[in-house]
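Lab notebook, bench 4. We co-purified these components, and the gel suggests they stay together. Before we commit to crystallization screens, I want a quick structural picture of the whole thing.
Request: model the full complex, all chains together.
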Amino acid sequence: MAVATTTPRRPRGRRTQWQVFLSALYRNKLALFGVVFMITLLLTMAASPWLPIPSPTRINLAATFQPPSAAHWLGTDENGRDVFARLLAGGRVSIAVGFAAALLTVVIGSALGVLAGYFGGLTDRVIMRFTDGLLSVPVFFLLLAVVAIWGSSITVLVVALGFTRWMGPARLIRGEILRFKAMEYATAARALGAGHLRLMVRHLLPQAMPALIVATSIGVGNVMLIEAGLSFLGLGIAPPTPSWGNMLTASQFYMWTAPHLAVYPGVMILLSVMTFNTLGDVLRDALDPRLRSSGS
Amino acid sequence: MVRRFSHLLAALAVTFALSGAWAQNLDAPRGGVVQIPLATTPGSLMPILPSELASAIINWTMFSPLTAVNPWTNEVEPYLAERYDANEDLTVWTFYLHQGVTWHDGEPLTAEDVKFTFDAIRDPETAATTAPDFRGVVDVEVVDTYTVRVTLEASDGFFADRLSLGGNEIIPKHILEGFDSLYDATEFITRAPIGSGPFKMRNASPGNFYELVANEDFFLGRPFLDGLTFRVVPDGNTRVTQLLTRQLDWVDLEAPQLPSVRNNPNIAVTTFDSLGYQLFAWNLRNPLFQDPRVRIAMTHAVDRRAMANTVSPGLGYVDDVFIPAGVEWVARPDVEYREYDPELALQILAEVGWTPNADGILERDGETFSFYILVDRGDVQREQMGLILQQYFTDIGMDVEYILAERGGRWLEETQQRTFDTRLAAFPLPNLDWAQRLYTCNGPFNSQSYCNEEVDRIFRAVLSTIDREEQSRLLTEVGYVLHADPPNMVLLWRDRMTAHAADVGNIPPNNIKDSMPFSHLLYRQR
Amino acid sequence: MTEYAIKQLLAGVAVLFVVVTATFFLIQAAPGRLSILADPTLDPSVAAAIERRLGLDQPVAVQYVRWMSNIAQGDLGRSLVFNRPVMQMIVERLPATLLLGFTALLITVLVGIPSGIVAARWPNSLLDQALSFASILGLATPNFWLGILLIILFSVQLGWLPGAGMQTIGQPFSVLDRLSYLVLPAVVLATSTTAELMRYTRSSWLEAINQDFVRTARSKGLVESRVHGKHIMKNALIPVLTILGLTLPRLVGGAAIIESLFSWPGIGSMAVNAAIGRDTPLILGTTIFVAVAVIVSNLLIDLLYGAIDPRIRFD
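Here is the predicted assembly.
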């Protein structure tokens, strides 16, 4: 293939890479919209302690199903809790779970991917056979079993998701590593006496970083969808901790009296997942032109 | 003297039918099919084997118990037993079967089948759900083809009543005696049961649907319907949607779902007293709650009526009597309802030594008032009430954690090990016998370790009589004792609802499961 | 070729062994018990008798060895709740899952590939952008939410389609009847996979267009439609096949939610109940069965590669 003969790309300056990203973002209007939405959301969440927003868990039986008002910007739910505050609090949980689980998958995936790609040979075969094998297992069933039995605390959920979804990133990273390992400067670093670990962590992993970032971004969205699906089955994050998934599920019961309660978290999930997916596309375009046209 | 129940009960039933709005149409048109949902695939079509709600519903339409609770009156009536009686000290019970009853395969049903069933229940290897009810049985004897005599080791005024509660339906000896274990009869258990009830299995598709047809020879008369169809529909909201699209005819309804069917001319809603309650239970092994004053104070800290009105608007009631008002023959003890009064709650807690510290948290001898509420996942009403309780207790300065746990997981574990601090649960009291299981020191359901000698003494007296007036007097008395030393906090005596297609008739004011022994009366208007 | 197939199969089985063993101990080490024992009105002595009968009173290691030795002999064991062979229960529900899964797969392929090609043929056109927007929405919508919306619209409001179940009971089988029940769940199940396949087809098509030999073909004067038709098709379809292979377990896993929502009597809804009811042999048996099925079908897809592109060798 052509890869072996190309000269190693010089790491581009931070500024230029940033500019490339911005211009790619500007070209993708949907992603731009998503990023603006997400930044606004994150800022509002960060600022919420100073905003005139009631507590998301404060129950008030005298004020259930209130319409939007100055005190409750999006009204109240079946327990008289402020919907806007709950959307923010639930978003914090959903996004945090998304990031944590996506990061965990990428960490596990890149550790295995780097090992496989770097050492090659038997190590590579064992790891990759295991990865491919796991892709054949309907891990969702196992996820269900574990979460149903251990309860779906945030920790259990993140760990269970992390350990069942690292295969994609692992394959991706391995591919990247194989590509860079063949390059001359890696050989040079080796010749200069860099140890295995140093070479992997300091030289190869950074090269795979663009792919990692893309995988994380898309992973966040996927995890958010899974959390919502688990909530529907009664296995999502357990109340009283609000999450968009369990808000969406709880609202099903009030579908006929207060359909808007289902619309808010549903739209939030949709917009967030869309944001992370399109952001993944943009990052791919910007950070790694070579990846531009291939799928995740 | 031999006491006869059948006449008295028949008379009672007539009175109810005449007085209530729930008169049954006994001259209904024949034909049609009614579709009823099951939330899960029934685990066992063998009624005496342990199972869950779905099995109980479907088995009652195919198998006959000796006695059954009339879903219109909540009174126990003779069913497969035409009548029954007990000797003076309530240790020998004799059941006289309907004559000429046949199994769905045409074989005659006799006293041998009853003995076979009861012996199977008594066999520990069977692990029958109702085995504990038969622990006091010394002997089951076939007197003649249609008469069975059960001998007990001690007086038990509720033996015949308990046979009506499900899990005691008679199973066919001629089919099952060949198996070493009932569990080996897998075809019977999963798709081809043979019973003697109003409907018989025609086509079973486990996980999907069960198609039943009328038993032409049913001993209480041919069912009005030509058939019953049970469909497995796991999601509660989907069940309501299915009612709206006429794919189901009769579903249980939760309060928030009511608006979806209320103004629909094709759907009728039935409301009834479920004879069960949602309760908040203290673990009385925990020193925090051992002083009844603490429990009384906590009761005053909760606006239970506002809570009931939120989780179940217009349905059900709250009081501090531990016997449901639906059991009309028990006189209500004249006890005061513990009103919402946080000031009073704090005052009582201060008497016991709990006072707010600098952070506003109740404290005594350097220890803060901290506990958690354990709630089982899956019941919308309980999940919501747990959150509301947490809010009320937090408001008076308690440090409260809310833990929602899987029913089969931590919730069960802590219930059985009795390690929880407090928990929410629902408890049915379909039969007053069940109250003693919950409130007596060694009661099998008393996981909260409640123990009051006085309560135990009164319940022993209740069990050794079948005189309704005496029972009523004793149960009223127990009401006073329970009020002074509350075993738990009544959150809601539940009224429940079902919704059904308006052209289905003879829908009893009861839940779907408990209506099933009388499914032969359901009919469909032309 | 045979050697390759055997290697793949062995690797799959090894992975399965590790995963299933880990899950077995994860489940058994957790507090609590079987769902039928979770009834607080169940007498403790009865619960103990049930546990004895099911062998749940044995040490976990003993239970594991007994279970695993059965698996090794091809026996998936018995469901604890239903007291039936797991294999029998799977076989009973397999047709429903296959019907739903293959219909969804058919929709995925029939909609995903052509629309991906169309988008790639006229990149950045209005059509491309519309399709791209649709695919982004399709990938971002929680599928049960979409399902509920479709049920409310097509079933409750319009009354065109039944909202749940698999057939009208009491009527003889008819294709039209079955289709009317199949449409909604299959469409919902296919939404995200279709969106994904479309994106994938589009990008691999674009990649193929830019490859040398296509340019060569063009320069040799081949008409555009022939270029698209033959050369690109071949090169673009290989990555697409890979994605389809990965889609299979997802269709089964994702079906768990859709089957529960639409009361579709398949393996997915059974697995959900088994997980919640803590029916370990049933949930693990189902997992093993599906995994083996996927491993075998992936092998078939690998072999298909060879048929499409003889250059592909197997190591």
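The interface with chain B takes residues 58-59, 61-62, 64, 78-79, 148-151, 234, 238-240, 252-257 of chain A (CB under 8 Å). Worth comparing against the SEC data before the next meeting. Residues 148 and 235 of chain A are 6 Å apart (CA to CA).
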